[in-house]
Backbone:
């Protein structure tokens, strides 16, 4: 039995009534899981949260035995059947063995191999272990996730770059190597809870587990705390980590780096690092998704007669052919010379031609242009033919 359940309405989570059949539970879950799947909503934290909540709800409701337990516990809870013994929503304990600490990325890694249907089972299994069972509760707490930001140059962001990030965050204490115990000593198993970190309490028909007071749910007691970290196993340290930013990141994108967040308490796994990337503007290039854009200044004569212009790309230069008679403002596409895409290939380079009008001409050029204007008129060209009712 997991007391976190009582704080949650799994039926509401799946949008079904409490009398829904097992088939309806499955159907509701399938649909929500599809819509909310992180692959479909990259970077959408809300969708990810919902996805976890829905998966948790399904893990309980799809198992007839767990569902029965859940229904009964909720009925009792609603009628005030439990006295003290404490349901403390938001209490420190709830997060410890809770579902929220699982690394979603890892779960998906495993689930991909299991194929359709595997995900629910897998999450169900994790949920079981993540509940108030004795094993999970004695697990040291995973480190928190850390948020940071970095600003990249336009080209760095497009091509990918390795950047150093300076961060001050809790790290394992170097003196006690994260154990929290003074050097030469080690933590001992908590005798009150036998190292499980939880004390079971029976309330009528239901057994509930609570974190052990003596060891605060850690399962171990430190007699001689390390003086450098006061027994926490953690020190604040400024560290510089080198982070590989993949090619093609966009301004404002948030990247997750697994295991690069805060150190866990007493040797538990580290949290994740989230880096929000800001991308500065470039003088030449712009971006439109995976396409790289640029404005190419040309002369009127070049547009009329056609030419080939050497144009910069992210990777060397390329000759862009402007066909004779190209209209001002037209965009020419150079395939595959844009921003690298995740998983290979690249977008296109979009070159927009723009006439540069000379502000001053020498006598020779002015005279030639005047002669040209007359010849143009004589040839029958009228720039405003058919324009504005003319
Ligand atoms: Zn220490
Ligand atoms: Zn204990």
Residues:
């Amino acid at each position: 039995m997991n007391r976190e359940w009582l704080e949650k309405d799994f039926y509401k989570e799946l949008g079904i009534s409490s009398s829904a059949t097992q088939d309806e539970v499955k159907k509701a879950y399938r649909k929500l899981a599809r819509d909310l799947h992180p692959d479909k909503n990259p970077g959408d934290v809300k969708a990810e949260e919902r996805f976890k909540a829905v998966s948790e709800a399904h893990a309980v409701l799809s198992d007839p035995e767990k569902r029965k337990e859940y229904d009964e516990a909720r009925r009792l809870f609603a009628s005030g059947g439990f006295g003290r013994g404490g349901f403390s929503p938001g209490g420190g304990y709830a997060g410890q063995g809770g579902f929220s600490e699982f690394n979603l990325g890892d779960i998906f890694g495993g689930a991909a191999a299991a194929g359709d249907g595997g995900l629910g089972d897998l999450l169900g299994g994790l949920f079981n272990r993540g509940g108030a069972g004795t094993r999970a509760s004695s697990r040291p707490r995973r480190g928190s996730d850390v948020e940071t930001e970095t600003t990249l140059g336009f080209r760095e962001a497009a091509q990918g770059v390795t950047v150093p990030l300076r961060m001050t965050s809790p790290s394992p204490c170097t003196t006690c190597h994260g154990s929290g115990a003074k050097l030469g000593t080690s933590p001992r198993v908590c005798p009150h809870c036998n190292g499980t970190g939880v004390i079971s309490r029976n309330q009528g028909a239901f057994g509930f587990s609570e974190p052990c007071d003596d060891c605060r749910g850690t399962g171990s007691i430190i007699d001689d705390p390390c003086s450098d970290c006061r027994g926490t196993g953690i020190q604040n340290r400024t560290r510089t980590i080198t982070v590989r930013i993949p090619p093609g990141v966009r301004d404002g994108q948030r990247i997750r780096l697994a295991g690069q967040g805060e150190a866990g308490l007493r040797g538990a796994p580290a949290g994740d690092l989230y880096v929000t990337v800001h991308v500065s503007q470039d003088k030449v290039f712009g971006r439109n998704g995976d396409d790289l854009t640029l404005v190419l200044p040309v002369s009127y004569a070049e547009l009329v007669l056609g030419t080939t212009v050497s144009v910069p790309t992210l990777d060397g230069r390329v000759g862009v052919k402007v066909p004779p008679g190209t209209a001002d403002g037209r965009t020419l596409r150079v395939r595959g010379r844009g921003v690298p895409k995740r998983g290979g290939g690249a977008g296109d380079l979009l070159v927009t031609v723009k006439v540069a009008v000379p502000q001053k001409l020498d006598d020779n050029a002015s005279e030639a242009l005047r002669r040209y204007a007359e010849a143009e008129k004589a040839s029958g060209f009228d720039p405003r033919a058919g324009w504005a009712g003319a």
